[in-house]
Amino acid sequence: MKLTKEQTQEIKDLQSQSNTTKRVTAPRLEEILYEALPILDHGFIRVIDYMGNDNSIVQAARVSYGKGTKKVNTDSGLIKYLMRHWHSTPFEMCEIKYHVKLPIFIARQWIRHRTANVNEYSARYSILDKEFYLPSKENLAAQSTSNRQGRGDIINGGQAEKVLGLLKEDAERTYKNYEEMLNERYDGTVIDDNKVGLARELARMNLTLNTYTQWYWKTDLLNLMNFLRLRADHHAQYEIRAYADVMLDTLKRWVPITYDAFIDYRVGGTEVSSKGKEVLKKLIGGHNINIDETDLSKREWNELMQAFNLKDKLI
Amino acid sequence: MKLTKEQTQEIKDLQSQSNTTKRVTAPRLEEILYEALPILDHGFIRVIDYMGNDNSIVQAARVSYGKGTKKVNTDSGLIKYLMRHWHSTPFEMCEIKYHVKLPIFIARQWIRHRTANVNEYSARYSILDKEFYLPSKENLAAQSTSNRQGRGDIINGGQAEKVLGLLKEDAERTYKNYEEMLNERYDGTVIDDNKVGLARELARMNLTLNTYTQWYWKTDLLNLMNFLRLRADHHAQYEIRAYADVMLDTLKRWVPITYDAFIDYRVGGTEVSSKGKEVLKKLIGGHNINIDETDLSKREWNELMQAFNLKDKLI
Amino acid sequence: MKLTKEQTQEIKDLQSQSNTTKRVTAPRLEEILYEALPILDHGFIRVIDYMGNDNSIVQAARVSYGKGTKKVNTDSGLIKYLMRHWHSTPFEMCEIKYHVKLPIFIARQWIRHRTANVNEYSARYSILDKEFYLPSKENLAAQSTSNRQGRGDIINGGQAEKVLGLLKEDAERTYKNYEEMLNERYDGTVIDDNKVGLARELARMNLTLNTYTQWYWKTDLLNLMNFLRLRADHHAQYEIRAYADVMLDTLKRWVPITYDAFIDYRVGGTEVSSKGKEVLKKLIGGHNINIDETDLSKREWNELMQAFNLKDKLI
Amino acid sequence: MKLTKEQTQEIKDLQSQSNTTKRVTAPRLEEILYEALPILDHGFIRVIDYMGNDNSIVQAARVSYGKGTKKVNTDSGLIKYLMRHWHSTPFEMCEIKYHVKLPIFIARQWIRHRTANVNEYSARYSILDKEFYLPSKENLAAQSTSNRQGRGDIINGGQAEKVLGLLKEDAERTYKNYEEMLNERYDGTVIDDNKVGLARELARMNLTLNTYTQWYWKTDLLNLMNFLRLRADHHAQYEIRAYADVMLDTLKRWVPITYDAFIDYRVGGTEVSSKGKEVLKKLIGGHNINIDETDLSKREWNELMQAFNLKDKLI
User: Fold this and answer.
1) Half-sphere exposure of B187 (CA within 13 A, CB side)
2) What is d(CA A286, CA A280) in angstroms, rounded to the nearest whole number?
3) In A, which residues are within 8 Å of C147 by CB distance?
């Protein structure tokens, strides 16, 4: 990630302000406000603004339950209770806004989370930066043979070199031709004074999907956790997980109590189906059950055994 | 509106805090943060938290348009442009949270605005306050004869007294019987130690729709303006308009530039249909057109004449 | 539930139509289309329209996964896979529309599910029916002592009679006074020709929360299941559960394969937290663990033991 | 647009079915159900399913207004009234589902309409088709000099040839290298049996933004009209307008009465600001006002004059 001199200065200026407010604050999050946290080769995440903290969740829950919540006497106990019982609305009372720089093919996954507000850099108005994502070698994996959607073994040696070469070359050439069609370089210099440039909204179609874009993305705490649950999971594509992992850190700085409950009940938790419960009940009762005695498919059986670390029962 | 001693003290405590933040602030809104602004006989609105200010809208728009926005050189010019051309996403980048106390029949209108987050006082957990809305005499209007949905002339004299008497008496009796069924008074004292009380989730059904409830209500600036456009309009029911009017004041304190654009383009603006445009074009051209020469219905004709203050053309 | 002659005739007319369509159909749901299925004392649910069936989910999933789904060779297998892995978007491809008659205090719970489309009977325009909900005796329960939000033992004898008497009397009196203020009876007859009636938008505030209202409510299959998961649960208030139970039947008629997966993975399933998993692992391993050796609260411990039917371990 | 033999057969099979239903139908829309309507060079739109018709809107409105709507005695009159007064919820009672094939850079614009359900072809699972969008010559325009976001004059001659050549060559080369990295051709044949292919979720990043993708897109009638109002407008990018125009035709077949009202009040209508109204009032009064006597910016002035066809007043 490289920032221009102007960007670095702008971040410094924003960080040096010190305003007074009667609103609640999240001191650990304030420490990194506006900071560009580097991700992948050219991407970043910056927390731009936020609203509320752990206390705002408690406060909203107490409005709902009135005197009925007095019994749960700690904030932490109440937040854990809300998380466990899917009482979701108090978590919607906190809001966060990120500035994200990310490759377009990742932006396309990300945007499928609809309950968020977005302002994306428009390539109809302006020229996209000359930056594209190239995986590092340890992330260059083959198509998985067991999982239609995932990655398998790392690709090595000559084939890896070749792939990286193709990606780099194609991105550079298509970008060069993008400039050619625009009759304008990425830095704004005109190429040929005797020509007009192709409309930006058209020229952009020549760029490859690893070109970086950027946006402001704002969401509430509940939907942020829904996003992180899916995208910080090991099934998620590595490139979006890299963003989710950094966002998990910002979550911890923002609402540390909620973060702990989220890790316990969501990230580290498991769902067990009705049929799966019958299997576990028998195992707890000391019966050595196998798949033929159940209604589970092979895949369901293995997922259940894996969740409870029963490796010798995998089939 | 009456607040308990505890509530008054809590508001004072919240208002006396002075935190430092690197976030942007809205100084005129900070002045009234947490304050209970009285509405109707027992209701109020309090701004509890907010995120962003006019500058956040400009900042988000500039992320979208990149260097393409440099030409619009004032923030005010850019905000007006966004409002005029329905570029809605930058306005979604600001968020506000209210604490509202309001009669249930108004809460039922309000909740139809779905794009908001809500934590309402739950009468399954706790006992509702002994407070109900009684209109003041100047708001006691007859059913409109021209508008199926609105109010007509004020009701006076004996009939007004009678209506107010019935409303008061019924609200008080049903509340008393609510306590009776709960076997508990609004202040928590048990009525008869030898009895159990009816479940709260059941007893509440005996209350009248003018009973006050309360909630935290959080929304973004775009949806707040959508709400205000409809609910601060003179077609809106008086009781919800009373809330919308106070919220308009908070809007002005929060985002003064956006407020001005909103008043000009939305609140004070008019939509003219394709057929209506033809009529206006002829009038501008000096032709003395009448309804028979148009495709407008009587109602459409009158709405158009009214919007342009052509009272002698009303039919 | 009583329907007017006109309503009964209208339903018959709707049901007797036989249109041809190239769209997919759900034959078992067609059987009860438009039928008023009775709920509580005066309520009902009617399926008014629907779009898609089990096959539409499969079709949508296959668009997403392309040739990648060929391996899962049965529709049922694919739907189970989608449900288990929270692949939610294919379920959003089906839509259903209900006509519901329900007490206002239940309508207020229901409307908190925001991702739905609603047209409610407007008491600003028209007079509400003279119908209110009175619980049957077996549903007249005391406030729970263990659960702040729930019901405990049934209330019997004289106290039950008294409660029912109060509910009936208060609803009847407030409705009578509603008519009085409107100067109009529920059937449209004017009471006193020399008087004007109070505006309907005002008079309605005198009604009690057990008055029936009605609405059209339309949602997609995913959000319907979210609704049913919460509202058909035994923690839900009985009165809304009565509606959810009938809707579960309509779900089964509409999308039988999805219904089965929903019952197995959602309704009958359980979530186990990270800490809970450790407890289960030890129990499976044959260790006789007790709460002191865990990080679970007493409540969490009991919920876990209950989910796996380990009654002797409840504390 | 070319369809495979299998696709053509599948469409024929779907179209030849004739199911009976008690639901309302839209006969003119049934005529083209499942049909692939060609757009751009390789794109299409197909209506896959729908729910409701004009009558469903009327029916929903009558539930809301009860006897209060009796006065508006025609369906057309009621629908026009709803449209004019922004009574939006009855329009949400109808739903439609499209299958769309479109270039990725257009898909990225489209997806910004969040209130819709989407299942997109996943390039993590499957290989994208070897199809990319190349503009026809008459759509090859230069960047507009007056509008930062739009197109100006057509680009001709040698420069046009060059642009088209670059777009074609780059798309073909990046696709060829995509196959190379996957070690698999678009038709599934393996290139080199001794190699493993790069994971699909990675290889796709090499494709250009004019590559075609496809999705199922489902939305309600209200949100469809919001989409069409923006995307069938002459300010919209030509490539998305091509889709919107075809969708306008499907709207007309589906809900002809609503379509007429939509064209009159939305598509052909204009918004006039508070300040703009003052200008029009003076013009109607016969005063020859010019911009200096108003508070309008030059841009606002010109937009107003253009809307009312006062070309001699443009400045």
Assistant:
1) 2
2) 10
3) none
Encode pLDDT of A291-313 as tens digits.
999 989 998 999 999 999 999 99
Which one is the CATH code of A1-130+210-269: 3.40.50.300, 3.30.1360.170, 3.80.10.10, 1.10.10.10?
3.30.1360.170
CB contact under 8 A, B210 and C210: no
Alpha helices in chain D (DSSP H): 5-16, 27-30, 54-65, 75-84, 104-110, 157-182, 200-203, 221-231, 238-254, 256-262, 274-284, 298-307
**% of chain C beyond a pLDDT of 70:** 97
**CB D57, CB D24: distance < 8 Å:** no
Which residues in D lie closer than 8 A to residue C21 (C-beta atoms)? 18-21, 23, 25, 30
Kindly report the average pLDDT of chain A as a whole number: 93
The token pair at A177 is 């031709």
pLDDT at position A69 = 53
Domain positions in chain C are 5-133+210-267, 274-313
The 3-state DSSP class for residue C218 equals strand
B66 and A15: CB-CB below 8 Å?
no
3-class state of residue C281 by DSSP = helix
Give A310's contacts (C-beta < 8 A, 6+ positions apart): A283, C284
Burial class of residue C21 (count of CB atoms within 10 Å of its CB; 0-12, 13-18, 19+):
buried
- A46, A204, A231, A253: the catalytic one is A231
Q: What is the mean pLDDT of residues B155-180?
A: 95
For helices C75-84 and C54-65, give the axis angle rounded to 10 degrees.
70
* Average pLDDT of the segment spanning A118-144: 92
Pairwise CA distance, residues B53 & B24, whole Å = 7
C149, C222, C259, C265, best to mutate vs chain A, most A CBs in 10 Å: C265
> In CATH, what class is D1-128+212-269?
alpha beta
C146 pLDDT more than 80: no
Structure tokens at B71: 């030409």
How confident is the model over A224-251, as pLDDT tens digits?
999 999 999 988 999 999 999 999 999 9
The rounded distance, in Å, linking the Cα atoms of A190 and D275 is: 41
For tokens 């006082």, the residue is B121
Interface test with B, best of A13, A87, A95 (most B CBs within 10 A): A95
Hey, what are C260's tokens?
A: 């089965």
Chain A interface includes D210 (CB < 8 A): yes
CATH tag for C5-133+210-267 (out of 3.30.70.100, 3.30.1360.170, 3.30.870.10, 1.10.260.40): 3.30.1360.170
- List, as ranges, residues 256-315 from D with C-beta within 8 Å of B: 263-265, 267-277, 280-281, 283-284, 286, 297, 299-300, 303, 307-310
If you average pLDDT over every residue of chain B, what do you get?
93
DSSP H/E element including C277? helix C274-284
Rounded to a whole number of angstroms, the distance from the CA of C100 to the nearest CA of chain D is 11
> Tell me, which fold does domain B1-133+211-269 have in CATH?
Gyrase A; domain 2 (3.30.1360)
Chain center to CA of B263: 16
- The CB-side HSE value for D34 (13 A sphere, CA atoms) comes to 15
Residues C7-65 pLDDT 10s = 899 999 999 999 999 999 999 999 999 999 999 999 999 999 999 999 999 999 998 88
* Chain A residue nearest residue C263, CA to CA: A274
Cα distances from D90 to residues B185, C101, C112, C215, D54, in angstroms, run 43, 18, 19, 11, 10
Residue C6 binned pLDDT confidence (cut-offs 50, 70, 90): confident
C174 interaction partners in chain B (CB closer than 8 Å)? 170, 174, 208
